[in-house]
Amino acid sequence: MTSLLFGHLEDCSTPQYFCFSVRCEVCGEYWYSSSIPFSKAAQAVRHPEKKELYDAIYQREKERAKSAAGQEARERFSQCPICRQLVCDACFLICDEMDLCRECAERMKEPGEPVAT
After folding, report:
1. Which of 42, 76, 79, 83 is the most exposed place for a label (fewest CB within 10 A)?
2. Cβ 93 vs Cβ 54: under 8 Å
3. What are the CA-CA distances from residue 71 to residues 1, 2, 33, 96, 113 (Å)?
4. What is the pTM of this model?
5. By C-alpha distance, which of 86, 89, 109, 96 is closest to 25?
6. Which residues does 31 contact at the CB level (< 8 Å), separation at least 6?
7. Nearest CA to 33 among 4, 6, 60, 3?
8. CB of 43 within 8 A of CB of 53?
9. How far apart are CA 1 and CA 97, in angstroms?
10. Is the distance from CB of 46 to CB of 54 less than 8 angstroms?
């Protein structure tokens, strides 16, 4: 599941902050990770001669932020066992037989309640 989520993380970062998003494949809504500030944002602007150094630090911190965003997204998304879509908790239903995305549950007439509203 983690590798699936990492494949769906979209980079919304700026030079000052790291942020990632995931789009639900059923409702199309975007979820955004917590925004994490780049520790050297102010220094990078003041010291352009150290651009390479700050770029390397930026990439290292961005990878850490992406990993944190993946963990955060894991708590809000599930993969449907039938259609394999990545769906938000509002579109993932707890059903009697098997937990499914809303689309598969409707198609199979399987009643259920969303994980979250």
Report:
1. 42
2. no
3. 10, 8, 10, 28, 24
4. 0.86
5. 86
6. 21, 22, 23, 24, 73, 76, 77, 88
7. 6
8. no
9. 21
10. no
The confidence score (pLDDT) of residue 48 equals 85
C-beta of residue 115 within 8 angstroms of C-beta of residue 93: yes
Q: How far apart are CA 36 and CA 64, in angstroms?
A: 10
Integer Cα distance of 94 and 100 in angstroms: 7
Rounded to whole angstroms, what are the CA distances from 47 to 13, 20, 54, 58, 96? 21, 27, 9, 14, 60
pLDDT digits (tens, 9 = 90+) for 29-73: 999 999 999 999 988 778 888 889 999 999 999 999 999 999 999
Question: What one-letter code names the amino acid at 86?
Answer: L
Radius of gyration of the chain measured on its C-alpha atoms: 18
